[in-house]
From TrEMBL:
Domain EamA, chain residue ranges per copy: 21-153
Protein name: Drug/metabolite transporter (DMT)-like permease
Family, similarity comment: Belongs to the EamA transporter family.
First and last residue of the signal peptide: none
Length: 400
């Protein structure tokens, strides 16, 4: 029987490159969010729900052309549980998060909800492994703790009352939910389509919330300054920020990507002096150093080079491996090759998984096949599609 076997391999250089790209994308997304506080300051008098509706609706319209030609089939393939998850992601991590932050600031100084939100990396570093049935990683947990301490140092602590603390805890839940709820739907949709979909859902939820809470006054025409701020939030913070965030999460995994949320208060503190709304002093510098150290430690930048044995534990490695079991080349008789023994009556037929064809040099995602030493077989029959679906099947076979 002619067989083709591709061995799952990885390289240190490939792992480092994927981690570096993921880190840059996640960092850019969080810096954009932190720098957007200036835009938020000019929207203080604009109806909250109306602003959210305009921001997410415009972002959705901008993202639709980049969602992909197969966007509709992929959305139709989602099951009801995944749609519920998308609704919760938009409601808890986007619309609800912004609502509770505003509510928290009515009874507390802005630093208070900021400190609670800065603890999100610790929550995610603990919850995500537990939900997956594994132990939290020590390096990620230590890095998340440093990020939380650094965020607290940057922002300090302000005056608050009981309602401020309660709503700040809700904000922490929203920030953690934004990362945890997105992970299972990121695989089938991808960063662009996921961003467009949650923005559409969030726009609908914001409109419903505004109609219930504010009645007819939930939406009005913005003036020139408000329109510019809403356009910045939609086009830059939401479109660019969301896509970069989810692309970074693809490469780093949920736990390590959430570490970069500590850069949000750092970016806010760094841009505040530019608009005269704050200062950057020794405390902010020390906190920024702690955040940077925590991110570097938890994301793996300070760890030594790893061997191929570490591929199981790295989300950025999983997307680079395509495993093809020993399968007969399509269209060929089951005849033994020069180095193959004829299968006897005890062949494990229950474990055979026929495929339409063996991948070869024409595979359209060839860069994701890291090693294929037995490359004598050429592409025959139909070539198996690449992309996210292979990664889902890898998870089913134990590669995590």
């Amino acid at each position: 029987m002619q067989v083709t076997t591709a061995r799952a391999t990885t390289t240190t250089d490939g792992t480092r490159a994927g981690t570096a790209r993921g880190a840059l994308l996640a960092a850019l997304a969080c810096v954009l969010v932190g720098g957007s506080f200036t835009a938020n300051s000019v929207l203080g008098r604009y109806p909250w729900a109306g602003g959210q509706f305009l921001r997410y609706a415009l972002a959705c319209l901008l993202l639709v052309p980049f969602a992909g030609r197969d966007a509709v089939p992929r959305l139709r393939a989602l099951d009801p549980r995944q749609w519920v998850r998308l609704a919760l992601l938009a409601g808890i991590g986007m619309v609800g998060f912004n609502l509770v932050v505003i509510a928290a600031e009515r009874g507390a100084e802005p630093a208070v909800p900021g400190v609670f939100v800065g603890c999100a990396p610790v929550v995610v570093a603990v919850l995500v492994p537990l939900l997956d049935g594994r132990r939290p990683r020590r390096a990620v947990l230590l890095g998340a703790s440093l990020v939380a301490v650094g965020a607290f140092t940057v922002q300090g602590w302000g005056r608050t009352d009981g309602s401020g603390i309660a709503f700040s805890l809700c904000a922490l839940g929203g920030e953690a939910g934004f990362a945890i709820l997105a992970s299972p739907v990121l695989r089938p949709l991808g960063p662009r389509l996921l961003s467009a979909t949650v923005c559409a859902v969030a726009a609908v939820e914001a409109a419903l919330a505004g109609a219930v809470l504010d009645g007819r006054a939930w939406l009005r025409r913005p003036d020139a300054t408000e329109a510019a701020a809403l356009l910045w939030q939609a086009a830059v913070v939401t479109v660019v920020g969301f896509v970069c965030w989810y692309m970074g999460m693809q490469r780093l995994g949920t736990e390590r990507a959430t570490l970069f949320s500590g850069l949000i208060p750092v970016a806010a503190a760094g841009t505040a002096p530019l608009v005269g709304t704050g200062s950057y002093g020794p405390a902010q510098a020390a906190g920024s150093a702690l955040v940077g150290t925590g991110v570097a430690l938890g994301s793996g930048a300070l760890r030594p080079s790893r061997s191929a044995a570490a591929v199981e534990d790295d989300a950025s490695d999983q997307r680079r491996v395509v495993v093809h079991r020993a399968v007969p080349a399509a269209g060929q008789p089951h005849q033994p090759g020069a180095r193959n023994d004829r299968l006897g009556p005890d062949a494990l037929a229950a474990h055979e998984e026929p495929v339409p064809g063996a991948p070869g040099h024409g595979h359209r995602h060839a860069r994701q096949i890291v090693g294929e030493p037995d490359g004598a077989a050429r592409p025959q029959g139909r070539v198996e599609p690449g992309g996210l679906h292979e990664r889902e099947r890898l998870g089913d076979h134990g590669l995590r």
